Amino acid sequence: MKSAVMPTHKEEAEDEVPDARTSTFRLNEGVSHSSRAEDLDDLHRLQKSSTKPREDAVHQKHMDSISETLKSAARVAGPKVVKGEKKGLETTPSFKYTRSGFLRAMSDAGLKPTVVYHNLTPAELYEKAMQHEPGTNIVANGALATLSGAKTGRSPRDKRVVREPSSEKDIWWAAANNAPANGSPNYEMDEKTFLLNRERAVDYLNMLDRIYVFDGFAGWDLESRMKVRVVCARAYHSLFMYNMLIRPTPAEMATFGKPDFTIFNAGAFPVNRYTSYMSSSTSVDLNLRAREMVILGTQYAGEMKKGIFTVMHYFMPKRGILSLHSGCNVGAAKDVSLFFGLSGTGKTTLSTDPARPLIGDDEHCWSDRGVFNIEGGCYAKCIGLKRASEPEIWKAIRFGTVLENVVFDENTREVDFDNNAVTENTRASYPIEYIDNACIPCVGPHPKNLILLCCDAFGVLPPVSRLTRDQAMYHFISGYTAKVAGTEVGVTEPEATFSACFGGAFLMWHPMKYASMLAEKMGQHGTTAWLVNTGWTGGRYGVGSRIKLRYTRAIIDAIHSGELKTAQTTATPIFNLAVPTTCTGVPDSILNPANQWSDKADFDATLGHLADLYETNFRKYANGGGFVEKELAASIVAAGPKVKKGTANGTA
Ligand code: ATP
Ligand code: MN
């Protein structure tokens, strides 16, 4: 029927197209459009075109590899994994057309087939999550809103590391029961207990109707990246890791082979609490020899992302590459900045900067060739998010983004970012290319500036100060921030937190190993360090207020323009920090916090109290831990605050 109206001569073609269209309409006037389908099955088949089918050999390799991963440690054979389309196996229509292919696996018992979805796309994962995971909805901005269950944050106390010969001597072990805490997050477990938990997780996963496998990379540096496999029970978890890992190209997928590291996430299933070493129904277990992680009893997705980070914190320094809990961006002059800081201090907010392409918001490595991001996505805090102050993050929340634990209107599906009814820790996970000026590939040259962020709720640290190398080491090792204790009415006392290297929860080696590598790299590359307080100004929490994001951004701009490098400074008491006297875009009066307090004696006492907390915390690292020379260790200690006897405990 088309041929009747199609031009026959080439030279007529362009002119004839509009005519062809009108004549088609004329032809169809008064006649209803009907599909080309023969029947309903045919109609569904027509709806989806198929991209080139996977080569059988590649497909078979994936299946064998997944079968190997899902193998029970106690029983010899892995589950029987066969191709879904195979004749004789019952398939349901919804499986028939899955583009990325699905696999039908037999559980060990051989009684109940398990469908394994391998590297599904976001659209497919949306559908699966909405079909099978209660509390999962598409919201008005297109994101997938879901709930992480009972846990809405990480469970650091439930982390266990297998004590085994290949890594035992390298690990910074947590102090044994009854010994005073040394700050290490690495509580030990034995290999047998790991296998018990692994078996529990694998049996749980093999028992489910469907599981998800995502294969991706950690690390943008092609020489040091790790191939990571995530096996999980929820489509939400698979989409989260699709966003957070580096997504393989089809060619990389075809040659993926055996993963370097595997996470078994059986988070909906609890630990058996009679198992040794367990302290709750949650356990996150790391086995460096087997290169496996098992998650039981928590569905908080951030556990997987930070699990991979922890693994990188072991393997990268072993190869001389420094892993860092930091955001990272790069200016027009190819000047790279790293933003260190504990949770909520501004790594994501400040590294996401319209003027500076984003390399990453949370996890980086610094090698001999420069910096690279570990991740393929960002994980932004959402509480109080506003389009006006953080437009880049706002725009990144769209189709493909996972929104965790946010509250939305039942009818309009508009998200209320101010609502903390589920948790304060609401989050958005999106691929890094959702940020308009992402720097892809996420790599950059050696950093020029290190920005050490803290959120000082005591309100005594200056909004910005320039650090000497030893001060930079001291503050990096200290890893200070403050939180506001409790939410009960009337409780407004800030509480200091110290977390070594601004990421104590993820360290595998002694903090001094990372610190010594940082000192060396700073020296080699002439890097300047800054301490930026994104916390309270005009008095402590309850009296003053958090410094305006606008001012902090102006400070960051002045660091990048070079203005603050040559600015005149004055030294603060006790901490001896070099504070610029002026900074473009920031009122002079807030640069020196002492000026902001009405009660000067209270200021001095509070500053002294904070210095005392720093000093007490630092004692455990003062000897250098065998990683830095005694001399350097001593000069780092000397760069800390000078606690004056008498003022140290002089505040409430
Ligand atoms: P995490 O390690 O948990 O991801 P993070 O360091 O990335 O934490 P952000 O997600 O950037 O922290 O959180 C900083 C929060 O503080 C944001 O919600 C931001 O809007 C808010 N904020 C308020 N004032 C400031 C300021 N002056 N500077 C930076 N952030 C600020
Ligand atoms: Mn962040």
What does this structure look like?
- Belongs to the phosphoenolpyruvate carboxykinase (ATP) family.
- It holds the Pfam family PEPCK_ATP.
- It is found in: Cytoplasm.
- It is a single chain.
- With 652 residues, the chain is an alpha+beta fold.
- The chain contains 17 helices and 32 strands.
- The site of manganese (II) ion (MN) has 5 residues, from helix 10.
CATH architectural designation of the domain at 446-638: Alpha-Beta Complex
> Average pLDDT, to the nearest integer?
89
Rg from alpha-carbon coordinates: 28 Å
Shape: globular
The CATH class designation of the domain at 446-638 is Alpha Beta
> In this structure, how is the largest beta sheet organized?
10 strands, mixed
Task: List the topology elements.
Blueprint: H1 13-28, H2 40-47, H3 56-69, E1 80-83, H4 93-96, E2 102-106, E3 113-118, H5 122-132, E4 137-138, E5 144-146, E6 159-162, E7 187-189, H6 191-207, E8 210-218, E9 226-232, H7 235-244, H8 250-254, E10 261-266, E11 283-287, E12 292-296, H9 302-318, E13 322-330, E14 336-340, H10 347-351, E15 358-360, E16 363-367, E17 370-373, E18 377-381, H11 391-396, E19 402-404, E20 407-408, E21 415-416, E22 427-431, E23 443-444, E24 447-454, E25 464-467, H12 469-478, E26 480-484, E27 494-498, H13 511-525, E28 528-533, E29 536-537, E30 545-546, H14 549-561, E31 569-571, E32 578-580, H15 588-591, H16 600-618, H17 630-638
Parallel strand pairs: 3-8, 5-19, 6-7, 6-11, 9-10, 10-12, 14-24, 24-28
Antiparallel strand pairs: 1-2, 2-3, 4-5, 8-9, 11-12, 13-14, 13-15, 13-16, 16-17, 17-23, 18-22, 19-22, 20-21, 25-28, 26-27, 29-30, 31-32
Helix pairs in contact: 5-7, 12-13, 12-17
Residues 341, 343-350, 362, 380-381, 384, 534, 546-547, 549, 552 line the site of adenosine-5'-triphosphate.
Organism: Elliptochloris bilobata
Subcellular location: Cytoplasm
EC number: 4.1.1.49
